[in-house]
Each structure stands twice: as C-alpha cells, then as structure tokens.
Sequence to fold (67 residues):
Amino acid sequence: MAAYKQDRTAFVHQTKEQATSQQEYWLAKTVNERMQAAFYLNSVAYNFDINNPPRMDKTFFTIRKRN
Fold:
C-alpha cells in the first residue's frame, strides 16, 4: 500500500477577500464548465486519460429483489 503525503507547496494561504474572489469566479461559470473542471481535477488526481476514463466494474455489484 502506497503512503501518500500532501504536497504543501501546491497550496497557497488566502485572505478572506481572495477566497471570496475565487468563489465568485466559480459561481460565474456555468454548471457544465464547473463539471468539466471537476472531471479534469479527478483525472489528474487518479491519473487517468481524460479522453479515455476508466469504466466501472459492473461485476462488483449484485442485484437483489426486495421482499
């Protein structure tokens, strides 16, 4: 099992005004643009090609009828 460490050089301390500015920036974007940005960040975090994402293993789940 790999031990992951947080890269503290990648983060910046912000003032309240800077954080509010960032929030306003993202709220001005459309939902589609925000989802594209989130998908891109997931592809970077989990190291997969954004044009060829991994498929869900559907054999892992089972289906049961309710009583």
Q: What stands out?
A: The chain has two helices and no strands. The mean pLDDT is 84.
